[in-house]
Every structure is written in structure tokens, then in C-alpha cells.
Amino acid sequence: MTTHRIRAVVTTVALVSGLLLAPAVPVADAATGITVGTCTLRTGDQQLPVTYDGRTYQVLTHVPARLAATRALVISMHGATQSGPMMRDSSGMNASSDKHGYAVAYPTGGYFNLGFDLPAGNFWNVDGLPLFKIPPPPTSREDTRFVVAIAHQLTRALCLDRRRIYATGASNGGIMSSYLACHDADVFAAVAPVMGVRAGKATGSDFQTIDTADCRPSRPIAILALHGMKDPVLPYAGQKGGGVWGPAWGYPVEAAIARWVKLDGCTSGPVRTTVSPTISRRVWSGCPGNVTVQAMISTKAGHSWWGHPTPVPFNFVAGPDDLSADANELIWAFLSRYRLPAN
């Protein structure tokens, strides 16, 4: 296989791993305003400034016309090669935000590649984890701290409840949300990684071992993992040797879930229920702080955001869709149950 052919294949896989389900569209002007506490907010999609490490970044944020009394913020992170606007479009989360009254931020990963050593697009620097076995450039923004800065600054700017900040994400963004659960449980009330549940870096000669020192949350934290058993990009069964992901993937999804049950100290479960004919739910409870660990596994889905079809030509690499349930509804129903403990 020629070098050009290899790059083409890797680029296609990367595009799908980032969930390129729809083209980005311009950010709409906010049409109306609402008052929340001492804040007068524009509603709709808007770019809000977040300062980190001496620079100011614009973060795509959606404020619903009717913000619920819970005043929650969800930070939703895109997959590799994508952007915040692409995550908004591909996930359809704005509709859920409007329905349930929570704000949602769609930040963009900190390093952009032109397609030389990696496929073109934006990537998240998750504590230096390599993608396609290539680490982030040395000058890359430290995205784990950037996302925490987003959480703090948008909560203040929008007069939201700092005890109701949540993280979710797809693929590379899902791995980021797992990292935040491990290291920033004092900031995020709960997390819901989609196609990206981890409980520490993969280690060992075949990357089948969890680096337990890499995930020591400061408290039990509620976590919901969503994954498809037919995912060809980040396989449900893991990848011996790490595949193209190295320490970013490796061990199986079930190993990550089992580790979270132990980390959270859960003593009961799993209780098994059915979400749809193809999606099952397992719940572990009896965890300190009344948190739960939940796993929703689709026997049908590939590398996709449930309830939203993957278009041609990306669907032939991503594997099948599962349209039997809306990931956004499942995620919000879970996240909204949790609030950070009072200081």
C-alpha cells in the first residue's frame, strides 16, 4: 500500500472517529435575552470569551430561551479532527438544551493539524496522549486545564450553578471527559463519555492494563458510559497493542467500567434494564455520595452518536447507526440527577 493510500485510509478513519455527521454552519446571532440572577443573557448560539494561559479564546455556547431553575452547564467535546460547531451540528444537543433548559458549550480542541503527520483537523490534548501514536506538539495548549477554565468562567459569566457543571464528549472528546472525571471531580458533578470511557491511561506491553495511578478522583463521581459493540474505531473489546491509539485506548470498555465501579466504591448491582431493543442499561449503586456508575451498551451501534444518522460516505467506516434512542436524552436524564456536594 502506498504512503498516499495509507494516509487516505487513516484520514477517513480519523474523520469518522470525530463524528463528522454534518458540515459546520455559521453561529447564529442570539435573538432574545433573559435575566438570570444578576446576569442579563443573550439566548441562542453565541461565542463567549474564555481566558487561559494569557490568551482569550471564543467558545461556542448555546443558551436556551428558557433556562431551567437548575441553571446547569454541559460542556460537550468533539472528536478528533473536528470542532465545536461540528459537535453542535452532529450531536443535535441544542434541541435537548432547549427542551430541558440547560446551557451547553462546544469548545474546540487546542491543536490543529494540516494533514502532514496526522489527518487534518482539531484535536484535544488530553494530558499528552498520542493520537495515531503521535503525541501533541510541544507547544500545544493544555486542554484539560482549558476545559476547567471554561467551566469556571462560563459559570460565572452566565450566572449558572457551579455545582451543576457536567462533561460529555464523543471519541477523543469522550476520552477527555473521562480524564476530567479522574482528575477534576471537584469541578464536574457527573460525566458521560460517549465512545470514550477510560479509567486511566492504557499501559503494559500490549496496552491491556489500566494505569491505576493515572485515575484517582478526589471523590466518588457519577459516570455514564455509552458505547456500541460494533465500533470499529475505538473497539468495545479494546485493542491489543493499542492499535493506532496506543495508550489512549488499549484495554476493553468493560475493564474501564469495572474500574469505575471500584473507584466509586459501589456495593450493589448491576441492575439490568432495557433502553430499547438494541440498548441495555446496567446500574451500579450503593456508592458513597449517592452516585452511580451506569453503562449503556448498544449491540447495533458502531462509532456513532445514537439517534443521529451518520451520512455517506463516513458510515461505511463508522459502522452502523443506532436510531432506537437519542443519546442526548439519555445523557441529560443521567447528568441532571447529580450536583456537586456542598462545600
Question: What is this structure, in a nutshell?
Answer:
With 343 residues, this protein is an alpha/beta fold. 24% of the residues lie in helices and 25% in strands.
User: Structural class of the helix and strand makeup?
Assistant: alpha/beta
Beta-strand share of residues:
15-25%
What's the count of strands?
16
- Tell the overall outline: globular
Number of helices: 8
- Distance between the first and last residues' Cα: 58 Å
* CATH-derived topology: Rossmann fold
Mean pLDDT: 90
Q: Which consecutive residue ranges, at least 5 long each, have pLDDT under 50?
A: 1-31
- The CATH homologous superfamily is called Alpha/Beta hydrolase fold, catalytic domain
How does this model look, in words?
Keywords: Carbohydrate metabolism, Hydrolase, Polysaccharide degradation, Secreted, Signal, Xylan degradation. This is Peptidase S9 prolyl oligopeptidase catalytic domain-containing protein. It is found in: Secreted. Pfam families: Peptidase_S9. InterPro entries: AB_hydrolase_fold, FaeB/C/D, Peptidase_S9_cat. With 343 residues, this protein is of the alpha/beta class. The protein has one domain: Alpha/Beta hydrolase fold, catalytic domain (Rossmann fold, 3-Layer(aba) Sandwich), CATH 3.40.50. It is built from 8 helices and 16 strands. Strands 3-4-6-5-9-10-13-16-15-14 form a 10-stranded mixed β-sheet, sandwiched between helices. The protein has a two-stranded antiparallel sheet with strand order 1-2. Strand 1 and strand 2 form a beta hairpin. The longest helix has 15 residues.
